[in-house]
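Lab meeting minutes (informal)
Scribe: AK
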Amino acid sequence: MRIIIINGPNLNLVGVRETSVYGDVPFEVYLKKLRNRYPETTLEYFQSNVEGEIIDTLQKVGFIYDGIILNAGGYTHTSVAIADAIKAIRAPVVEVHISNIFAREEFRRQSLLAPCVKGLITGFGLDSYRLAVESLTGH
């Protein structure tokens, strides 16, 4: 099975940025552990702070990958364009968030992506990604 994790803006700073919210483990360290836990699954990774690059990646992989795990960061709450890209592709998309977006600021409590994805996992720290892998692989 081939899955790609796509992380949006500022998620390249996980482990450094607001550690009380996002934790102190860099994403790349967690990704290595995730790959070791699921050796039968190819887990690829893409991160961008640029909305258009996220859309281009969704369009590129959305017809050839078995699943997409998407943490669009702040674009979750603002990007109609990313929502449209999700609707246009075939691969199932699981939306993830490290923090519980529904327990944070009011503007973070709405996801424009949620109506377009297979499911949403929020608030389990970096383990949100593991839960998404399990939902896509059937573990």
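Next up, CB showed the second protein from the same session:
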Amino acid sequence: MRTLIIATTLCAAAAATPALAQDQQPAPPPPCQEEIYRAFDFWLGTWDVTTPDGRPAGTNVISEQENGCLLLEEWTSVSGGSGQSYNFYDPGLRKWRQVWVSGGATIDYAGGLNDDGAMVLEGEISNRNGTTAPFRGTWTVQEDGAVKQHFQQYDPETEEWNDWFVGIYKKGIRN
């Protein structure tokens, strides 16, 4: 009798299994896989950063996070300063956005790829003392695979964009 009960239970379980499988929905595709979410992937990696004349400026690690929806920047300057940014495609704005924090100062700007394939973001820098200014960042892939990062701050008195930082990114030893 015990064998009959076990066999009946196993048959019932086997009969129910296909019904459960049919009711289950396939897993949704991972988020942020569309082409627009890959537009800033050229910046991913571990980088040694120099000034245009070759002097060391620091290191930067750009890693993919949140299933490809976020690029996390972790900057360390040669002088010991640091900063981090979140870089992501904002579907509400339909633009790429970066929010940078370093020593209490922030930069928040948005944009996208220009016709030359450079990532150009524009917005505002907010300093610890409460002053703000228009700010622009441009990342351009160079022929040798390096990336040129060019930051500019707008001066309303001269009505000109002034260089704030220019860095040349080359893949670091850890890549």
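CB comment: The first helix runs from residue 2 to 23.
No objections, moving on.
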